[in-house]
């Protein structure tokens, strides 16, 4: 198993290297000076130019340039933004937690809704509840995120005025960004009205999270249902039924642990889709996350910011998929001793 | 009164081509303390019968029977809960592929813990784990597993098929069943372990008075271990009676063909001579012949065979054939 983990880490390193190479090639292909594109300094002075050439080894071969590009990025030097000249890395540090917060809660809710419904659908296969759940998941799956977000804002935000329509926290609450995760920050801060702040943060979270969770939830329902159906027909389920084991024990102790593995691997595959819909959701709900930031950068042709966004988002997806692989291997006894990924 | 009494059991499958009768009016009766063999080629519906008795068939299958009784209880009329109670205490089944009959994601020990009948435990709750472990150890020793600690800690894929089958048997005898259905218990097991498992069955039969329904396609096992035998072909009962009688004088051409296909390695078998077989293969479920299903393959088929023959009885020996064999089998 340790060998397998080493192989996965190896894969991670090489994939990220290829990602950096692609971004580097893109930067050199983009219009404008490579030095400007990499560093983000628009009209550098002579001393600044010298520093940039020295940092990115622009007087050497392109391989040297590529390696020093990786070196700079790994050490947190993502250059400065074209639009406001502030360091991109600092901006990302404040924006990334907001996006991760949204995605993590969305996945959590997707699992919370999807797993039980999928199990119910599989257990009552071809009964009314099954067709109802499958129909509802089809409707949910085909609902566009942007439309759903706007409708939710109109109904719950404007008509009923139950929930706030934009932002992460009301400006009334002065909470310092320590970790970047609102709930955690409120916990760490020493403001007077903590409970009210929690309420407000949760109220801000509800609509974006649910909007974002809809599609993953339907995917989870369908995959859980198929893999549960497969497992419920397996021999060991029949054998435990024949031993008179209680159906609840059969479903939750035997069928579910076996059925959940394809669900987890599918979720990690869904992550890139989730990030894309997170960007849309962030724009709709004015959520100060990385997606909104990236879309604005695209409008302003802010090349350093775009490249930083690509590196972070793609790197995040690769990291999560490698981590899921390792977790899946660690939780599957048959594959624990495997050296290679297949089977 | 027979322990298991099956009269005209039919198992049907809904398919796009209409209803397919995979098992056609099968009769079976098993007396207490008896070992009954159920023989037939693969695909003759033996496992379906077993699963119908246990009630673990998919929803796709429809089971109907004039009588499907266990110890006087109508199995088809039971609710799910009553059936579970019955299966958890009186009827047990051993499956064909032991390693796939254990949850691949769970240790053998944990699965064993679940299958123990806790109603038998009289200990207070804090002594229960100890009681369970003792029970499990005893059961594993009984089926011939000595290194119980390693086995209990292992996952099913780490054990051999023979050990898995022994574990399965240990789990099933944990609640002291009165009827054990063994569905080809030794097909995937090496020869040495096969004999051990059959000896174990015999021991259970003699010491605990367990009735056994042994489903197999190996006539050698039937001859060695069973008292009565029912031969099935393609979902129909062709012959049933005492094993001794049937092996001495089969009445049905199919039983005859089965017996002849058993190679006798003593004499008469010359070098590179052809072994006798029944030509053709079992028809697929979509293309079942009408009447006697053996018809197209039967060496003695006549025009009359398109009508299903009735079960006839001759001195405790049932057969369903219009033209029973009367000449005796070659030694």
Question: Are there runs of chain B of 5+ residues with pLDDT below 50, and where?
Answer: none
**In whole angstroms, how far apart are the ends of chain A?**
14 Å
> What would CATH call the class of the largest domain in chain A?
Mainly Alpha
> Helix count of chain A, per DSSP?
14
Shape of chain B: globular
Word description of this protein:
The complex is a heterodimer of chains A (343) and B (331). Chain A has 343 residues and is mostly helical. The longest helix of chain A has 39 residues, at 194-232. In chain A, α6 packs across α9 and α7 packs across α11 (247-284). Chain A has two domains: 1-83 and 300-343, no CATH class; 88-287, MetI-like fold (Orthogonal Bundle). Chain A has helices at 2-29, 34-39, 46-56, 62-74, 88-123, 128-141, 145-159, 182-188, 194-232, 235-242, 247-284, 290-299, 303-331, 333-336. Chain A contains 14 helices and no strands. With 331 residues, chain B is an alpha/beta fold. Chain B contains ten helices and 13 strands. In chain B, the strands form two sheets. An eight-stranded mixed beta sheet of chain B has the order 7-8-9-3-10-11-13-12, with helices on both faces. In chain B, strands 1, 2, 4, 5 and 6 form a five-stranded antiparallel beta sheet that branches. In chain B, α4 (128-142) crosses α6 (161-173). The two termini of chain B are 36 Å apart. The mean pLDDT of chain B is 82.
């Amino acid at each position: 198993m340790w060998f397998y983990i080493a192989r996965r880490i190896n894969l991670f390193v090489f994939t990220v290297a290829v990602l950096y190479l692609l971004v580097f090639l893109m930067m050199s292909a983009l219009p404008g000076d490579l030095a400007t594109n990499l560093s983000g300094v628009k009209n550098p002075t002579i001393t600044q130019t010298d520093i940039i050439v020295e940092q990115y080894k622009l007087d050497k071969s392109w391989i040297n340039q590529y390696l020093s590009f990786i070196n700079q990025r790994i050490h947190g030097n993502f250059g400065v933004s074209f639009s406001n000249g502030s360091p991109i890395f600092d901006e990302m540090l404040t924006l990334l937690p907001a996006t991760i917060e949204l995605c993590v809660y969305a996945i959590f809710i997707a699992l919370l809704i999807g797993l039980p419904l999928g199990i119910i659908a599989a257990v009552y296969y071809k009964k009314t509840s099954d067709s109802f759940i499958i129909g509802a998941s089809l409707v949910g799956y085909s609902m566009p995120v942007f439309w759903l977000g706007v409708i939710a804002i109109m109904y719950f935000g404007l008509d009923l005025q139950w929930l706030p329509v934009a932002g992460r926290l009301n400006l009334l609450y002065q909470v310092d960004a320590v970790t970047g995760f609102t709930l955690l920050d409120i916990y760490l801060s020493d403001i007077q009205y903590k409970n009210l702040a929690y309420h407000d943060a949760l109220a801000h979270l509800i609509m974006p999270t649910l909007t974002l969770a809809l599609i993953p939830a339907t995917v989870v329902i369908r995959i859980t249902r198929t893999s549960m159906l497969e497992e419920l027909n397996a021999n060991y389920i029949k054998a435990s039924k024949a031993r008179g084991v209680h159906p609840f024990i059969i479903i939750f102790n035997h069928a579910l642990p076996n059925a959940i593995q394809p669900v987890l691997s599918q979720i990690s595959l869904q992550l890139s889709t989730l990030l894309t819909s997170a960007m849309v959701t962030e724009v709709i709900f004015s959520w100060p996350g990385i997606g909104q930031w990236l879309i604005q950068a695209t409008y302003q042709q802010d090349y350093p910011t775009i490249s930083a966004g690509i590196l972070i988002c793609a790197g995040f997806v690769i990291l999560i998929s490698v981590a899921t692989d390792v977790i899946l291997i660690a939780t599957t006894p048959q594959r624990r001793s495997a050296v290679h990924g297949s089977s | 009164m027979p322990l298991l009494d099956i009269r005209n059991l039919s198992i049907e499958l809904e398919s796009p081509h209409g209803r397919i009768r995979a098992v056609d009016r099968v009769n079976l009766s098993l007396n207490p303390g008896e070992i009954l063999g159920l023989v037939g080629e693969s695909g003759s519906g033996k496992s379906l019968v077993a699963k119908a008795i246990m009630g673990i068939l998919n929803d796709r299958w429809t089971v109907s029977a004039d009588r499907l009784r266990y110890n006087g209880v109508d199995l088809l009329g039971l609710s799910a809960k009553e059936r579970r109670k019955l299966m958890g205490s009186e009827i047990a089944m051993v499956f064909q592929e032991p390693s796939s009959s254990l949850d691949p994601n769970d240790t053998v020990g944990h699965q064993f813990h679940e299958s123990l009948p806790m109603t038998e435990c009289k200990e207070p709750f804090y002594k229960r784990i100890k009681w369970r472990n003792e029970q499990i150890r005893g059961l594993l020793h009984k089926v011939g597993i000595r290194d119980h600690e390693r086995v209990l800690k292992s996952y099913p894929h780490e054990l051999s098929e023979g050990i898995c089958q022994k574990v399965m048997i240990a789990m099933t005898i944990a609640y002291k069943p009165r009827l054990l259905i063994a569905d080809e218990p030794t097909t995937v097991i090496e020869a040495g372990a096969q004999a051990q498992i059959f000896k174990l069955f015999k021991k259970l039969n003699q010491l605990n008075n367990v009735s056994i329904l042994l489903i197999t396609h190996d006539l050698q096992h039937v001859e060695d271990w069973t008292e009565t035998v029912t031969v099935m072909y393609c979902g129909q009962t062709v012959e049933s009676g005492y094993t001794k009688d049937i092996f001495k004088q089969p009445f049905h051409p199919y039983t005859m063909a089965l017996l002849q296909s058993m190679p006798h390695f003593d004499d008469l078998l010359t070098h590179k001579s052809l072994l006798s077989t029944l030509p053709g293969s079992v028809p697929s479920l979509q293309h079942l012949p009408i009447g006697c299903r053996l018809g197209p393959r039967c060496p003695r088929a006549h025009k009359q065979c398109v009508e299903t023959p009735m079960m006839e009885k001759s001195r405790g020996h049932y057969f369903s054939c219009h033209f029973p064999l009367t000449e005796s089998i070659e030694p």
